[in-house]
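Hi all, posting the design record for the shared folder.

TITLE: backbone redesign
STEP: 1 of 1
STRUCTURE INPUT:
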């Protein structure tokens, strides 16, 4: 039996939620933007009225206002976006239990076994009408025989539309589209392909395996399979929990960091949250990764292994800082810092110590960090802090809502 896969994409999600909650915004050009004071002053989402003026996601607020003088700037309300994302998935759950999120506003649905409810198109159309009636939001849906083409279909017509890509006619429908429209073909991959005259999905589908593997590695072979409609990846069940692959925390500072001491303070604050999440997920970190972006928006990343897997924020901070001090050249001040715990182990996984590890000292630090964590849990995150963190900080106020990404990274 041929699969029937839907991809539902909520149109201009953040901006649509804001306009629905505040009807006065409905016919105005609206952009949801980060805080200028905390240096997140970019467009996160915009409605179609703003898009008509050329406002685009990712550009600075001042650039957007140059294009649209009457642009209404709205701050993000993540708790509302999470709420409406959940409500939408409850609607999807009326048709199937195979619902795989792809971010907050997109989901794949496998409705292969839902034939009694109609064809794939009929189910998609009923979902589209239900979401509009019950939530006041619009979606675009793609209907196809695999996840990749369903995703492609949802992008082809917007807003409030449905596109079907059938197995017997997909070549005529999508091979003429730009290769960059295909999931898995990012900007860097697109640049490589275009450099060799490969511009469309059809041209990608006809390119030799040896050439793609040579230029793009395994990803080259994967995207060729996608272009030829050979994706058989399953849609996960709604109760499926993606394995946690890394746990990270990052911030853009309110002012540039100008020396090692300021970077140390930021890292020390970031790892407190990482330690909390490691304990919550019963994991220990076997490695640390850092990402540093300077004030010219150039990013460098480094990572290293940790000799003994740990949950200790202190140990993680020291490892991250040593990695930073060893590799970063102070040519420019630093704008943002991200720390991630990687190579995760189960909390109760046996550990082989070497002859040079001070096990007693490590055990004391672990027990001290556990006690600190208990105090923070009972009396709040600011109940106990490292003394150095009480000085004037360049840290922004914390975001109230944690987002769990579909990639398995928690941040």
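Okay, here is what came back for every position:
SEQUENCE:
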């Amino acid at each position: 039996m041929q699969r029937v896969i839907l991809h539902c994409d909520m149109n201009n999600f953040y901006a649509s939620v804001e306009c629905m909650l505040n009807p006065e915004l409905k016919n105005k050009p609206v952009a949801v933007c980060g805080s200028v004071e905390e240096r997140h002053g970019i467009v996160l989402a915009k409605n179609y009225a703003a898009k008509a003026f050329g406002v685009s996601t990712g550009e600075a607020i001042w650039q957007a206002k140059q294009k649209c003088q009457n642009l209404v700037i709205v701050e993000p309300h993540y708790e509302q976006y999470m709420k409406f994302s959940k409500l939408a998935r409850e609607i999807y759950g009326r048709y199937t239990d195979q619902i795989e999120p792809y971010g907050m506003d997109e989901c794949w649905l496998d409705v292969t076994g839902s034939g009694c409810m109609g064809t794939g198109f009929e189910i998609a159309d009923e979902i589209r009408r239900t979401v509009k009636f019950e939530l006041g939001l619009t979606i675009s849906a793609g209907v196809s025989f695999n996840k990749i083409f369903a995703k492609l279909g949802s992008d082809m017509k917007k807003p409030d539309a449905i596109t079907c890509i059938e197995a017997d006619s997909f070549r005529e429908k999508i091979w003429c589209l730009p290769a960059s429209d295909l999931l898995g073909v990012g900007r860097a991959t697109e640049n490589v392909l275009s450099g060799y005259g490969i511009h469309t999905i059809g041209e990608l589908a006809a390119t030799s395996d040896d050439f793609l593997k040579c230029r793009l590695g395994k990803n080259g072979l994967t995207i060729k399979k996608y272009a030829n409609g050979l994706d058989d990846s399953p849609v996960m069940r709604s109760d499926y929990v993606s394995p946690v692959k890394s746990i990270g925390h990052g911030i853009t500072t309110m002012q540039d960091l100008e020396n090692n001491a300021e970077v140390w303070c930021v890292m020390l604050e970031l790892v407190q949250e990482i330690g909390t999440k490691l304990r919550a997920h019963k994991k220990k970190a076997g490695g640390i990764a850092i990402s540093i972006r300077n004030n010219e928006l150039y990013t460098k990343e480094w990572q290293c292994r940790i000799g003994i897997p740990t949950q200790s924020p202190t140990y993680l901070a020291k490892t991250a800082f040593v990695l930073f001090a060893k590799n970063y050249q102070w040519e420019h001040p630093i704008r943002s810092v991200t720390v991630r715990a990687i190579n995760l182990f189960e909390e109760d996984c046996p550990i082989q110590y070497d002859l040079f590890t001070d096990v007693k000292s490590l055990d004391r630090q672990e027990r001290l960090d556990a006690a600190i964590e208990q105090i923070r849990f009972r009396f709040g995150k600011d109940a106990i802090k490292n003394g150095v963190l009480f000085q004037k900080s360049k840290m922004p106020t914390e975001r109230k809502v944690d987002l769990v990404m579909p990639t398995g990274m928690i941040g």
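COMMENT: The chain has a mean pLDDT of 89.
Let me know if anyone wants the other runs.
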